Structures
1.
Amino acid sequence: MIRTTDATQINFREKFDLKGKVIVISGACGLIGRAFCEAVAQFGGHVVAADIALAKPAVFAEDLEKRNGVKCLGLEVEVENKDSVLKLKEAALAEFGRIDGLVTGHQNKTHLIFEPFENVSEENWDKVVEVNLKGTFLLCQVIGSYMAEQRSGSIVNIPSTYSVVAPNQNLYKGTKMGCPAAYSASKGGIDALSQYLSSYWAAKGVRVNMITPHGVWNNHEEQFEKNFSNFSPMERMSYNHEVAPALIYLLSDASSYVTGNNMLVEGGWTAW
Ligand SMILES: NC(=O)c1ccc[n+]([C@@H]2O[C@H](COP(=O)([O-])OP(=O)(O)OC[C@H]3O[C@@H](n4cnc5c(N)ncnc54)[C@H](O)[C@@H]3O)[C@@H](O)[C@H]2O)c1
């Protein structure tokens, strides 16, 4: 790090540049993952777009590469399976020879099918916790350990507003939606794991931060959008392209002294 008090020596634009950096993004083909990949590629980063086979990450990465003129790679992964995560790391290293950033943007969708807490099956609980929390643990363990050895890297994990506060049950009135406890619990685990790793790896040059998105619009049912607007200080839902700029900050040298931070991109939801 440049040791100076003279800010005129600093090119602040360059601090946000991701040129030449290799960023692994899980859940890359999802709503927020897609915006993450696009933003990283636009800032010059090489994206390793990782997702389940069904999401066709190779096709997605090919498009991304064509649009942005940076080498990208699409790889299939099941984040809850250690062998699969090890293969992801090896394939990324075989192609690029380095990994500079890890973004864990995957999630299990079981939480969208609301089950009252009293009836939650063990099977559903395990699946949500396994994909969301264990998947994040494995990605951090396999790729974060590589970064710690390399003595540099940035990890960005994605918890949820519902690991910060409880869901307001009135939000779901008149809709088919809900937020089951397993989702909140798995996301709370991601928050705690990220805090833990931020201090564990701080002296090794690996920064670990979080982005908490909230109410990202995806053609939601009208009643839900109305309810959401009533409870939101900004009186609207957000868009995936409003979440992704925070990622550029956290992955780049612009945030070189930031670790253990949870950047809330939630329109002030938890401010009142
Ligand atoms: N959308 C929101 O409003 C919101 C709010 C708060 C937090 N989040 C969090 O942000 C992240 C992204 O959300 P999103 O709305 O883009 O979700 P999404 O459902 O659109 O995308 C999730 C992606 O994860 C992939 N995935 C599922 N299981 C996987 C597995 N086993 N291995 C690897 N990949 C797997 C899916 O194929 C999908 O592409 C999630 O962690 C979510 O919990 C979202």
Note: The beta strands are 22-26, 46-51, 73-76, 101-104, 153-157, 206-213, 262-265.
2.
Amino acid sequence: MTDQLPAAQLAHIAATRHEGDAAFRVLSREDFANARAEITQWEGYAPTPLISLSALAKAISIGEVLYKDEGPRFGLGSFKALGGSYAALRVLQRQISAKLGQDVALADIRTGRYKDEAAQITLVSATDGNHGRSLAWGCQRFGAPCRIYIHAEVSEGRAEAMRDLGAEVIRISGDYDESVILAKSEAEENGWFVVSDTSWEGYSEPPRDVMAGYGVMTSEICEALPTAPSHVFLQGGVGGLAAGVVAGLRQHYGADAPRVVIVEPELAACLFESGRTGEATNFAIQEETLMAGLSCGEPSGMAWEILAEEASDFLTMPESIVAPTVRLLARPLEGDTAIEAGESAIAGLAALIAARQDAGLSEKLGLDAHSRVLLIGSEGVTDPAIFAQIMNGQDVV
Ligand SMILES: Cc1ncc(COP(=O)(O)O)c(C=O)c1O
């Protein structure tokens, strides 16, 4: 084992999986198929690369490490490009259809047939960056005004990227949860529409569409892999990414679907807590993690329904292995492709590497020299200033 590989103690819970059909019911085959049919028509659509990191696999004694690099997704820098934008289009479809008293097609909104109507519909969301960027981009494409609420810790680089896409960005002094509350209350007062990537009691359509959009990524993976990987390590914020991906994998591979390992920062471990208690459980965030996209204290109810049945293991990881893992991807072992990844992208990989250096944990996770592990590199360099700091050797914690 080379000392380039970041090591750490990870906390682990083996989940008691609930029985059920959430991977087919919460997100149906039709939800995924509709999203795919629409999104693959968008200008600039191209499948993202699925990269096999063989030198790394060899270094950690594992069969294969497969890294789906979402950095190039629609030029927006993350997998989130697939979710918020599609959910925005679907809100416009529902609202315009209701107003006109007839079903309108997504393609007609996309191509500007209803641009006067779309210009009257304001879409809002709270975000820590990537979801808001996707929503702002969708609104710009489909001609709807967009307001994004960000909390005190969201970097100015990320705020600027959303402004550049035409969104009005409102920064509050509180935390993420407070930005969610403000977005909701202002939407209610003004007749705007919240497009959130997380669900709550009575609010499920946009988050379902967001997860259905993520299915485009899963279908690209399934097409590229005739046989299922043995494991998938998925980083969790509210759980939408993980739930969207595992539902797609279950629908495609059936009983051969990979073992699902959820990875979160120690500082924001709401899914880990939910795995421990067996029900959706909040986590009180005391300090912000560097992995900004994973800084969520409250699981998405819909995502949890799927993960409660599909996730086998929950891990938390310390901040100390974030920067070294970003650097390892960017300056890879000889023979591997260099990948520029953001802080939230590498959680799954960081946890896999750490787990392979801990024989007891590897055994608990069923990892051995034959395992083929799928990872979602969920973002590229979405904040160049932070990336530069990391590459300059500063352990940004
Ligand atoms: C880059 C990145 N990875 C992973 C996630 C986690 O996704 P989710 O909140 O759906 O669990 C996010 C969420 O913002 C993200 O931006």
Note: The chain has a mean pLDDT of 95.
